[in-house]
Design goal:
Strand order of the largest sheet: 1-2-3-5-4
Strand content: 5-15%
Oligomer: single chain
Low-confidence stretches: 1-19
Shape: globular
Radius of gyration: 20 Å
Order of helices and strands: HHEEEHEEHHEEEEHHHH
Bound molecules: adenosine-5'-diphosphate, magnesium ion
Mean pLDDT: 88
Largest sheet: 5 strands, antiparallel
Number of strands: 9
């Protein structure tokens, strides 16, 4: 469903004959009115409730959601817990609305403990990495590659009653190695741990240590690549980028204590 379709769906007026930038801007503004206030916003996207069952996720950059839609359809076909995708249209993805707090919210509220959070994250990684990669535009799947999420941190896990912990935000997903995905998640958690002024620094250290034990995959061979990718991620703000080297050191430290050698 396009912007106009959505506006119609929400009972808004749409002007089929209007063309040109002024009218497009007006249509865009009208769609915002029709969609209302986002129920959640992340770094890259706003998420609007369409009704009790569906949300619309809009990439603020305007980037197409076609690739992420095909990956989510692929993993849900394998039974992986992620929202069902109903339609992808330009920057908009209409998908199943998941009910429940994020794992991060649940951790912050002390409803989920550190050990359990680490176990949930590790189990999701293990399950995801049983799914073979698919060909994507300009990126054919290599033999042995599996689906990797590359942003599988506690704010991208929703604890649903219906399907248990489910994963959202598939923007970075593609084919790769389990080690790269584990290294990336470890690095993201370690950035919080490395921020010594941060409120969650201690908790993040504990989640990191437990996650690396539970994941059962050595991230060290992929840590340099994960650090490079993380440092060049445009959604990181300056202070965060500065934390990446210290975060990588922490991952190296904890991973070496787990490593059987
Ligand atoms: N299918 C969904 N159902 C309910 N809430 C969702 C859904 N997808 C995302 N959200 C909420 O919106 C937030 C932002 O979406 P996300 O896809 O993670 O975008 P960003 O890339 O901006 O982080 C998530 O952390 C989650 O709270
Ligand atoms: Mg997110």
């Amino acid at each position: 469903m396009g912007i106009k379709g959505l506006a119609r769906h929400n009972g808004a007026r749409s002007d089929h004959t209007a063309t040109g930038p002024r009218h497009e801007a007006a249509a865009e503004a009208w769609t915002h009115v029709a969609l209302g206030t986002p129920i959640a916003s992340g770094r890259d996207a706003d998420v609007f409730a369409l009704d009790e069952e569906r949300v619309l996720r809009r990439n603020r950059s305007g980037r197409s959601t076609a690739v992420e839609a095909s990956i989510v359809r692929h993993v849900t076909a394998y039974g992986f817990p992620a929202p069902l995708v109903y339609s992808a249209d330009g920057p908009d993805l209409v998908m199943e609305r998941l009910q429940g707090p994020t794992l991060l919210q649940s951790l912050a509220a002390d409803e989920t403990g550190v050990r359990e959070a680490a176990r949930i994250l590790a189990d999701l990684h293990t399950q995801l990495h049983t799914i073979p990669a698919i060909d994507l535009p300009g990126r054919p799947a290599r033999p042995g590659d599996v689906v990797v999420h590359l942003d599988l941190h506690p704010a991208n896990v929703i604890l649903t009653e219906a399907h248990g912990p489910s994963v959202v935000d598939w923007v970075n997903a593609r084919g790769g190695s389990a080690a790269l995905d584990v290294a990336m998640t470890a690095l993201i958690i370690a950035e919080v741990a490395a921020d010594s002024d941060g409120e969650y620094s201690e908790a993040a250290r504990a989640v990191l240590a437990a996650f690396l034990v539970d994941a059962g995959v050595d991230p060290l061979p992929a840590l340099a690549e994960a650090s490079r990718m993380r440092s060049s991620d445009p959604s990181l703000v300056i202070g965060e980028r500065d934390l990446v080297p210290a975060a990588a050191e922490l991952v190296r430290h904890f991973a070496s204590t787990v490593r059987p050698d």
